[in-house]
């Protein structure tokens, strides 16, 4: 197995096309053709993680947070980012990041966080907007099944919890092959009519290229008629955060204890009424404050995320200064540490022959002082 094989598995799960515009994901250091039989997974890349991988004989490290996040002008051994890249190169270890593309994936980071907190019936909190397309293919009737299968395998036709969704209508295709053509039907220079079907399916924008290639391979015509249209509205399978419910309502202090204990958080910062009841809960692993309006609109009693600054806590208050909901900052590392297991489990399921380890290193540099 190669580094490229592992990257392909990760990208099939969390396509890089669904990452945030500011993000950097995928293979960041190393050789895509390099052999791999052991992988180390971590939330962050640190010197300790690189040393751990080298000692274990891992040829590849996969992290959630990317090392090369901001533009890099040079790679030298005397700066924190460059020194890690230099250390990887010297050890012959390749390095891959799977960041906001995993945040936005169905079954991704926030889904794992919700499960960790005992939240049920999870749905995407903030679906991606403006990313869906409609693909329309015209094909002879006898090729319809093959074309539909190709669309499905390329990632088209996924709506919520349904796959292989499409619509097929009947029609008549007309064309005249010109000199140089090798028509599947008809003769060069003659007008031809064909019994055809119109096949329609939705597709995310990042899968359009794969859909074009799949149709070209499955379609009997040398020049398949294929249209792509932009769709208004939001995606049904991709987005940030989730919202769901607890098995039973509980008072806010009990809910906070649940979060603290489940995540191993030393402390929680929050806005909320200690007398309130919590049942409907929204979560977003990592820095998810930008989705607070979505959590409020979803009717969440509490929203668990991280990296909430002092002034932003005020956004959870109403015009009288009362909490509109409980806003809980449980820590960036704490809300995303589950990502290590999530990635490792995926790789183990897809590649049983691959040894996949989760780092023993707590990669967060932050500590909480609670007194003597």
UniProtKB/TrEMBL annotation:
Transmembrane segments: none
Pfam families per the UniProt record, alphabetical: DUF34_NIF3
InterPro entries reported for this sequence: DUF34/NIF3 (IPR002678), DUF34/NIF3_bac (IPR017221), DUF34/NIF3_sf (IPR036069), N-reg_PII/ATP_PRibTrfase_C (IPR015867)
Binding annotation for a divalent metal cation 2: 64
Key words of the record: Metal-binding
A GO cellular component entry from the record: cytoplasm
Example GO molecular function: metal ion binding
Residues noted as binding a divalent metal cation 1 in the record, renumbered to the chain: 65, 103, 332, 336
Family as reported in the entry's similarity comment: Belongs to the GTP cyclohydrolase I type 2/NIF3 family.
Subunit structure: Homohexamer.
Protein name (record): GTP cyclohydrolase 1 type 2 homolog
Organism annotation: Rubrivirga marina
């Amino acid at each position: 197995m190669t580094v490229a094989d592992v990257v392909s598995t990760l990208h099939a799960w969390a396509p890089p096309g669904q990452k945030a515009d500011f993000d950097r994901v995928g293979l960041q250091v190393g050789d895509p053709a390099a052999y791999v039989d052991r992988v180390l997974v971590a939330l962050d890349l640190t010197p300790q993680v690189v040393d751990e991988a080298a000692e274990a004989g891992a040829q590849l490290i996969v992290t959630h947070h990317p090392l090369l996040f901001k533009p890099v002008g040079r790679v030298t051994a005397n700066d924190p980012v460059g020194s890690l890249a230099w250390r990887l190169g010297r050890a012959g270890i390749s390095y891959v990041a799977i960041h906001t593309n995993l945040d936005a994936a169905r079954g991704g980071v926030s889904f794992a966080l919700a499960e960790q907190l005992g939240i049920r019936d999870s749905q995407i909190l903030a679906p991606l907007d403006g990313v869906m397309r409609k693909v329309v293919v015209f094909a002879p009737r006898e090729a319809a099944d093959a074309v539909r299968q190709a669309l499905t395998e390329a990632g088209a036709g996924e709506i919520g919890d349904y796959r292989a969704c499409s619509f097929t209508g009947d029609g008549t295709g007309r064309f005249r092959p010109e000199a140089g053509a090798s028509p599947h039907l008809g003769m060069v220079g003659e007008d031809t009519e064909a019994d055809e079907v119109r096949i329609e399916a939705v597709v995310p924008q990042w899968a359009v290229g794969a859909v074009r290639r799949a149709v070209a391979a499955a379609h009997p015509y040398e020049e398949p008629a294929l249209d792509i249209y932009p769709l208004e509205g939001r995606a049904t399978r991709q987005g940030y955060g989730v919202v769901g419910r607890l098995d039973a309502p509980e008072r806010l202090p009990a809910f906070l204890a649940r979060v603290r204990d489940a995540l191993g958080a030393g402390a929680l910062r929050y806005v909320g009424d200690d007398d309130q009841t919590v049942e409907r809960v929204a979560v977003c692993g990592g820095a998810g404050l930008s989705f607070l309006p979505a959590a409020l609109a979803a009717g969440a009693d509490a929203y668990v995320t991280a990296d909430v600054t002092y002034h932003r806590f005020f956004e959870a208050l109403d015009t009288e200064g009362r909490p509109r909901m409980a806003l809980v900052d449980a820590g960036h590392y704490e809300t995303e540490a589950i990502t290590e297991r999530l990635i490792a489990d995926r790789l183990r399921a897809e590649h049983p022959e691959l040894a996949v380890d989760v780092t023993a290193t707590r990669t967060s540099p932050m500590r909480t002082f609670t007194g003597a």
